[in-house]
Amino acid sequence: MLVVLAREPRPAAKVWAGRRWLAAGDALVWPALWIVGVSAAPFATGVAGLLVVAGALWFAARRLHDAVLANERYRFTTWRWGRPVAGLVLIGALLKLTSVGFPT
Length: 104
Prior knowledge:
With 104 residues, the protein is mostly helical.
């Protein structure tokens, strides 16, 4: 295999008191949100929905293992995806707030 650009692995994260518990919660919340999203879909998801649920359960187990047993290598998903999602929600709320005063 030819590797053109080899990146160095990320350095281990600092381990602090409570990081293991927060990482375990983070590891379980995001796959749970995927499962809730599939189960609350307003249409029949069929086999694709079952596949998403099975994949979310698999990733939850893998992530929980990494969060508890290899905590220094675990990266928080909330920092990666929570900020952009919160930004989009804020933009949507501001758009809704500014469009309330104008007649349509």
